[in-house]
Amino acid sequence: MSWFAAVSGKRGPSPQFSDAAIQFCLTIKSLFGLALRQTTGFVQSLRALFGLTWAVPDFSTLCRRQRNLDVQVGYRRSAQAAHRD
Fold first, then answer.
1. Do residues 39 and 62 lie in contact, with contact meaning Cβ atoms separated by under 8 Å?
2. Domain that residue 60 falls in
3. Does the residue 18 lie in any domain?
4. Residue of higher predicted confidence among 14 and 51
5. Does residue 76 form part of some domain?
6. What is the pTM of this model?
7. Is residue 75 part of a domain?
8. Deepest of 23, 47, 67, 72, by most Cβ within 10 A of its Cβ?
9. pLDDT in tens, 12-27
10. In 29-59, which positions are buried (b, 16+ CB within 10 angstroms) versus exposed (e)?
């Protein structure tokens, strides 16, 4: 998985972040029920925690790019029902 997008060769600026990077951020958003600004902050915290120096997509980039991506979060059903006491 590449975090940064390859140069497209088309006119205009190429996207800075790959679809996989946007998909990762939107998956985090979906899993934790976050807003886009919160998602950006959470991913920045993860990046700092792991000592990475990569740039993180800002909320406007996520908003614009999520229109063209389908976020698919896989899940497995539990064998037992979850009960709260």
1. yes
2. 23-68
3. no
4. 51
5. no
6. 0.74
7. no
8. 23
9. 777 778 888 999 999 9
10. beeeebebeebbebbeeeeeeeeeeeebbeb
